[in-house]
Design brief:
about 130 residues; Ribosomal Protein S5, domain 2; elongated
Amino acid sequence: MHKSYGTGRRKTSNARVYLKEGTGEITINSKNLDDFVSSETLKSFVLAPLEKTKMEKKVDLKISVCGGGPSGQVGAIVHGVSRALVKYQNDLLPILRREGFVTRDDRKVERKKVGLRKARKATQYSKR
């Protein structure tokens, strides 16, 4: 039985993806995919790498994800799944790269600066 592993990151979320041959079962933090992700948009985004490579019914995924919010966690899962698929079958790399799943999205929330209201927003300037 062939197994593979991939780590995905997005914002402050980290996902560990364990991939093995199977029937298409997806478990995230010991929950079913439908129980973990409530939004249909995010659910389709999780399944996108598997659909593009036609591996939905060929592999089982066991995913452990922590940190961040729902969209960050889904982004980390997608990144981890695509990395695990590339390790599992190297000829899937061009397909996943073309769709943009292999590249890590390194954007993070900018920190708040001293003397400002937010990261860049300052108090209103008053001339008099």
